[in-house]
Write a structure and sequence with these properties.
The structure is a homotrimer of 440-residue chains. The first copy, chain A, is of the alpha/beta class. In chain A, 30% of the residues lie in helices and 22% in strands. In chain A, helix 5 crosses helix 9. At the A-C interface, helix 10 of A face helix 6 of C.
């Protein structure tokens, strides 16, 4: 059974995740197209991913699956014949979803199609235009400022044609049909923290969990942002009700403190589990109320679904300067941050897996713990004392109205201590697990 | 329909209100009598007020309408023949509701009938003795201290006889029978902030609202404090249940920060609406829990009625040094403060008028706002971004369980943004208004 | 009827309590045995205590009444012939419940049976071994450090044999069967604050209450810690449901600020009553959430009982350096602290006794207090104003949904003011007491 928070995956999960990021970094991904396909193929070498292809035009709630976008090359030739904004040098140079173009334009006209970041003049911004046909280039502000007047050649060798939306899915069945969802977006091109870090962590976690017997079933989605979650929900509407807990996994590779954006419900078990783990992490963290912006939690938490899905990240959506720029690169993310993030996710999963409601079978006064070897005698050490408190808390609150997470919250003890105490008491037949639905 | 928070009334509502205060300032009002009658006549020149006369002795719950008090003149003649405490110089000099007296008394005896303010030796206090027969004079403490021994002539030419209690009422019917009550007390003599400011603001607001079509009906009461609200409630007991929201309007002309004293219920819609407006005013304000003292909210919030009536003022009851003294004069109140207060009242009324519950007709995932022209594309500006958040919040929370005010509260967006977003979404048929009672 | 918080008991209750502590201080108590018997005999000279003897081996829930322990003498003879750790000098020298021993041991062996306090090298610790057979001595750390190598004679003249567990009980019937429980542990030997102070205060309070007619019945328990409350609950299981409010009385003689450890329920009437009294005491105090450790509240608040029992102490369990050492002596506790503690208990009991729910018989608008002599007229003084507020609060909130304690809490007025206001209003027939169960 899934259990203690041992270091998941290989001996060096941080290094493994970082290697995957490094490999996928150069690929130009978008919400559709071969970049996503290649990315999913690579992930499928690590975990038994099912790849789905949904035809363009497929209606998905209020939306339709868009045409597929692919790109071979792109650049600008300056009046002096210099080739700049080369797609092959950095795929951020192209406005994502640019329609094909090959023509000559004067600088004034070109400027309407150029995007830069005055505040960070050396960085290339990341911009998209999925639902309004347009073409454009993203360049450093320094370069933009130095462009001479004159005629420019702009060239984008892209296609925007009926095709497919591609996404990956892995379902690991557990003892029950109730699911934990882990969803990451795979649509961003050469950006490491957002969201190659999420892709790598989700892959590592899936690899870890498929080797274990779990209480919950686990569903992993590797999908393009927004349209991907809308597509999955539209095509799997009936399955959504099985999702008991969920995470959107993003921005988990940088060195910032953890940020937890709560589900729309705000006090769902996933919210309480994550916050419990973060509170006991002895590190600062940010707790953010749900707001209908950000990543795919917007869709999972739309009022027609209202799933218990939160978002656990480090520096989050729009909150770090490198966000959506060329500075979100291989130097921003680090193996040790990825490993720490993975540990936090597995700690939360440990809470979800082991959170049960027990009934104290000796509810009238305390049972005599000493005769069962559960109680220290003269001269308790600090360590054994703590355990004693966990035993006493579990006994006191196991009235059928409190699950172990609630006991951990009220007692201030870490969940693992409470879980171990409950197991010890159950072995002594002082505690009985309540079947779900019979208690709190 | 009543709507946006445009500046109500004339071009210079602050000046209009101030002019009314200036005109009514010299009048000696009390809980009955010709001062109130004259005041209501003047107001009736601005708005179609109905003036009610309730005979003395009429039983009103545990009380009876008192005898009517009128006064022509009053003064004291000192041993040296000097005339002091002249009613005609300042009507605060007479203990309000003094019985008639004309006699000679020694200083020791006179002192029992003199009231002054040692802490503000230049100010005349305002005192009353409605329910215990007495006579008296209010003078500055400096004057009190300088009175020589000897025999004084006291003269109060008043009458206290069966007559009437007079109050004014204006009912503006709206689309529904549910009422918003605005109640101000008209019993105070030459005191500007308390409560000529409330009288002037209530008049201005009534004049503004009678020119509009509103959702709610509006009831304006110009009544003597305590006995007036008791009388109205006793004579209109059945109508009280129509009052859905209400304000006691007082002390709205000085420069202090706003004070909101909540209704007894504490979390009524009126309480939430006022606090929402004040929180978004970018100014400091005071939020005060209900307590059974103050003005007529005491009666409206008595347990047998428990109406959702709060009190919105600036410096409040007893909280400013000039309170109930001759220093509450034409210099304490200013047109700009009155105008700002009026704006705050109309902002709150805008919330009440427009607070509805809507149902998101596309609750599963977000609708595609872009194809409806509701979404900015590349390069959103700060302004349009805000609106986007309002749209997303309204969609996310319009599950039938949240009204617009709750959405504004949870989102942190100003009500007007949320209201505009809801209207835009309704025009796109993404939102449907729930009829009252079918939702939250 | 029980009522105002007059100084309970004799003229010098602090001195009386201190005298009882001084008399009982030398006695060696334990969870069973003659020390407890002697202690209860002495208490029975003050109040009509019933002494119960429960045979060893009696099953009490998960436990059994232990064998009875008695001791006559104990000491150690050093290699140089010096007699140390003499029981007759200080009964803390013997590990409480030591089995008999008389033999010679080398220092190395002896050290395994010696307990000291390195942090307080001049103090003797208090240690017990009730449920694991052992023998031992408690000595100062200085003495431990100075012991020379060599052979020691150890002598403990104790018996551990089938006998009885002894406890004392006093039940004072009131107007109703509902009980207030006051429980103190009597098992500690020469330790003053923990818990001769609790014994003395409980005795004094019983003596005071038995001379009065009370609304509640009062049950006083003088029991050994843990096994005593388990025994009482096991033998009186059906009666436990009569306990409406309860206190564990301990550590009430030192000069520390009050500490209130709430019942497991957290918001029971006893919790609210104690915290109300402490908040109005104008002294700092500590409010502690329930935790399943400490004294007999652990048993009363076990989930099978979940009684509304809190613990009101000064310095509390384990929170002062002298705790469970020879420094918890006659100098640590003082008559004035005991008297102040007693006053706090009686203030809380006054709240419990007088907390009723009333119905305002004139709920529509305020009644006219003036005509009933309840209202000050011109020139209220601060004192009479306060009373006015209490009258208005009681009228406003006596809607059948608020008891007097809730009115005191919401108004911020001391309970005694609210109680007096309710009595005055009841005398005027403005208020009617609701029979329990008909209101809040």
């Amino acid at each position: 059974m899934y259990g203690e928070a041992t270091s998941p995956g290989s001996e060096h999960p941080g290094g493994q995740m970082y290697d995957l990021i490094k490999e996928l970094y150069p690929v130009c991904r978008s919400i559709t197209g071969n970049g996503v396909r290649y990315t999913l193929e690579r992930i499928a070498q690590r975990i038994p991913l099912t790849v789905h292809e949904v035809p363009s035009g497929t209606p998905v709630f209020d939306w339709a699956v868009p045409r597929e976008w692919n790109i071979e090359d792109a650049y600008i030739v300056t009046p002096t014949g210099e080739k700049i904004a080369e797609f092959k040098a950095n795929n951020l140079h192209v406005l994502n979803y640019s329609v094909p173009v090959h023509k000559k334009v004067m600088l004034d006209e070109l400027r309407k199609h150029l995007f830069s970041l005055p505040a960070h003049p050396d960085w290339i911004p990341y911009r998209t235009s999925y639902y309004k046909e347009n073409w454009g280039f993203c360049i450093t502000h320094n370069q933009l400022e130095s462009l001479p007047d004159g005629e420019y050649e702009v060239f984008i060798d892209s296609t925007l044609e009926p095709g497919h939306l591609t996404y990956g899915e892995l379902f690991i069945p557990g003892k029950t049909d109730e699911e934990v969802l882990l969803s990451c977006h795979v649509c961003h091109p050469s950006l490491c923290n957002d969201n190659l870090s999420g892709i790598a962590l989700t892959t590592q976690l899936a690899d870890y969990l498929r080797g274990r017997r779990s209480r919950y079933s686990y569903r992993f989605l590797f999908i393009p942002g927004t349209i991907g979650s809308i597509t999955w929900l539209a095509l799997n509407e009936a399955r959504a009700s099985n999702i008991r807990h969920g995470f959107v996994v993003t921005c988990v590779g940088d060195g910032g403190p953890f940020t937890y954006k709560k589900s729309r419900r705000g006090t769902a078990e996933i919210d309480r589990a994550v916050l419990h783990v973060l509170r006991h992490s002895r590190q600062g963290f940010r707790e953010v109320d749900f707001y209908p912006y950000g990543y795919d939690e917007r869709q999972y938490c739309s009022p027609g679904f209202d799933l218990a899905v939160g978002s656990l990240s480090r520096s989050s959506h729009g909150q770090y300067p490198e966000y959506h720029t060329s500075a979100d690169n291989l130097e921003l993310v680090k193996p040790e941050y990825l490993a720490e993030s993975l540990q936090t996710f597995t700690d939360v999963i440990d809470v979800l897996e082991n959170n049960r409601t027990y009934l104290n079978l000796n509810p009238k006064c305390e049972p005599q713990l000493g005769k069962r070897g559960l109680y220290s005698n003269v001269g308790a050490t600090a360590g054994s004392k703590l355990k004693e408190m966990a035993l006493l808390w579990v006994l006191n609150l196991s009235d059928g109205q409190h699950d172990l997470l609630q006991i951990a919250e009220r007692s201030g003890e870490p969940f693992a201590e409470i879980r171990d105490a409950a197991r010890a008491l159950q072995r002594c037949e002082l505690l009985k697990e309540l079947s779900p639905g019979s208690g709190a």
